[in-house]
Amino acid sequence: MSKSRNNRESMLKRLFDAVGALNHAVAQRAQKVDRIEKDYPGEKLKTEAYNTRKQRLATVNQEFEKEWVSALKHLDELCKKVRQRQPHLNDLTVENINTGTRFPDALAFGRMYLTYQNWKGYIPRLIPFPFKKSLWLPDQTTGHRLIHQLMLRLMHCMPVGNVEITAADPLRLGTSLDPFLSLLKVKRLFPQQRLLTRSDELENALARLTDYVEDLLQNKFKGEIKSWSAYNEANSSNPIPYKLLLIFGVPEQLTDKSLWYLGRLLEHGPACGVLPVLTIDESRLEDRKFTGLRTAIDKYSKRMDSIVPAEILTKHVSEISVVEEQEFWPGRSELTDFLASISDRYEQSAKFSKSLTDLWCNSDYWGHDAVQGVQVPIGWTSEGEIVPFSIGGVNTEHHVLLAGRSGSGKSNLLHVLIHSLCHTYSPSELNIYLLDYKQGTEFSVYASPPLPQAKLVATESDPEYGVTVLAHLTEELEKRAQEFKSRSVRDFYEYRESSAAELPRVLLIIDEFQILFSEGRQVAEPAEKMLNQLLRQGRAYGIHVLLATQTLKGIQSLSMGQLISQIGCRIALACSEEDSAMILGNSNWEASKLSSPPEGIINNSNGAKSANQRFLIPFADRGLCKDHINKITQIADQRGYCGSTRIFNGSRLPEMPAADWFNSKSHEAVQLHLGERLSFEAEPLSLTLVNRPSSNLLISGYNDAIHDGLLASILQSLDAQNGIDEIIYFNGRSIVSAGASKYLDGSGKRPVSKHECVTSLNLTDIPDELHKSKRILIIDGLDSTKEFHSGPASFRPVKKDEPPSPQESIKKILEDGPLHGTFVIAFADNWKRCNSSCKDLLSFFEMRIGFCMNEDDAGSFVSGAIGKFKGLDTDNRAVFADRLKNQVSWFRPYVNGEKL
Ligand SMILES: Nc1ncnc2c1ncn2[C@@H]1O[C@H](COP(=O)(O)OP(=O)(O)OP(=O)(O)O)[C@@H](O)[C@H]1O
């Protein structure tokens, strides 16, 4: 037992000992004086004897004085100490509310008036705490003041947040607690937020408290711990609160069941920190019906006004007289102020204050392997027990559904989970894929520095991109399946047990996963298929999925029920009843009662109501998280893990690589490196200009950043090629492409021949020189260059020796050029205009790149026919269509570092 506990335990004794010391001084003096009286009886002594007597008496008095003063000083110090913590009730202030964690070992009730001859003094009247027995009083309103005093004392000197009061006042409808009614709103203090008056609610409350006591005895104390105070002594960071059960007017409204519960509480409550305090109508207890209760009261409780420490004290102090004096009750305004402070303090303490780092306390980084599953702490029960998140084990679930309305703390919980996982498991035990569909930067903290365990950090993702991630993971699953088969092992556990090869578990986390299903069947169908495969087969291969969403409403049509039925672990934060039933399970509405943040429910039984576990989630403070990530990165460096985190940011196009990168590419054919494919691997989209008819490239879309980025990448790609004799750039847009001007102005190895007027292009010469030189003709603004448009001129008969029109020349180049290595790359901002004014030319452009187009325009642009093509209306991607091969590829074009 700790030293401080010993000190605390002895306070009452020390106080009594100090009074005992005073008494001792008095007693000693009396004894010594007696002896002197005996030795020198009477007054009629000879002078010599008289002097000796006088001298000895003086010495005795001196000694007494010394001893008395010293004892008094000590007593005074002790009294001050007690009063510092427990002033008189009329001196209570906000400053002396107990905001610490120490429980008192005695409660001050009034004072004791001590007198000896002319001396008089006061000491606090301390009553040992916790009470060993229940308390009762006759049901008279005069007795209520004692109860009020007890309440006030407990509220003020118990650590804030650690008193809970259940009160019933059936006859006076709550008025028995008049002075405290303003506190009923404080849920932490009065969980029912009212005084109970009816038999059914009283029965329920008693049943709950009895269950609570039973649970403590069986599951917390387990026969090893003897009492509430012993438990709290051993668990000082996580104490059990003290519960006061006040029932006025017993046996009013007590049913047979209530009587039974009350009997149990009178007997076992005090040892478990549940103190029944009853006011009793004694005449009614005469009834035979209440014999059991009467016996329990006699046996297990004490009359409240007869707990008299003065009796004990009088045994110590025969010489000093002791009189008890009642506590002072505060004035109305002092009481109002004080109760308001208590209310504030309790409200504040109700705000859950545990921090993220409390979750892993001092546990080592990466201290576990994931062979038998993954288990990490994610919060606490209200009693302070750690609540684990477990997946992948023999007796645990494998996939997780997390849902809660906006603001309920989903992102926070995901951070808590990610940090807890990355604290516990190294990158060779666990790989995390983070796919976030939210607008915002929630997961970007894991991108820089990259979280060593993260294989992917994708923010503001595209549904199309999400599908590629699912495809990557299903490939991984199939690879694992092959590998396991070749080694004749059944599952991840057997593989890890039988092989020294490294194989981490995988956890895919998709935030706002419903977005995957919101873009029509084109994306939803493959997404659903692959997700289904991961959910069905992932368990055997150590691949797990966590799906987070605000609501499941609206995605029901997509056999969502079937998907969800394969997810055994459900985590629900605050939401509507309807959502609660969807997330947790039919008729499981408990999540609608949560106050999130920080409350949540975790259910590891497919949502069965009986498996609900409420828990409190710590706040993932940004600064703390940043430090933790830095620490994890540092450990990864020390242990030689070289990360390979893919970063995908859906709101930013990739930056164009440097010239060296273009130079390093193969130059066997003319290749244009235009961006990154919209796939998990994000390979470069490299388009080869092959010598085949109509292999010209038409680029259309209305977005300057993408236009300029594509133009710049084309020029940079061409600059790196060897087999091109001339690059001709014609600007028909009448605006300068700011993002590409550097590449047009001769920054590269070869000059670009620039033109702004069609006639200066000498288009008529090009078809004649196709055998001699290979040219790339870039027409920027095909749609706005009238000379290339179809019109009456295109139908006129060509007269002999008349030079061909620009339209005829370009047509010839488009038609014959590709076979000889001369290609046209044309840009058209406005596809509609281009489609109608350049229709004679369009069939020669079998390669097309489109961006920022509506579904109708995209349909005709990509396929050449009327129809719709979805997904091009955002400014963060483009599509490449090779119409000869009938291939369509999504990609993210390079830009020059501009943010979109
Ligand atoms: N356990 C917690 N303790 C204290 N504050 C919290 C806790 N969890 C979340 N919060 C706070 O609540 C607010 C909402 O949290 P969060 O962003 O995680 O909710 P959300 O469910 O992801 O919301 P949305 O879906 O709208 O993005 C934030 O201000 C956050 O700081």
UniProtKB/TrEMBL annotation:
Residues 386-582 form the FtsK domain. It holds the Pfam family FtsK_SpoIIIE. Keywords: ATP-binding, Nucleotide-binding. ATP binds at residues 404-411. InterPro entries: FtsK/SpoIIIE/SftA, FtsK_dom, P-loop_NTPase. PANTHER family: DNA TRANSLOCASE FTSK, SPORULATION PROTEIN RELATED. This is DNA translocase FtsK. It comes from Isoalcanivorax pacificus W11-5.
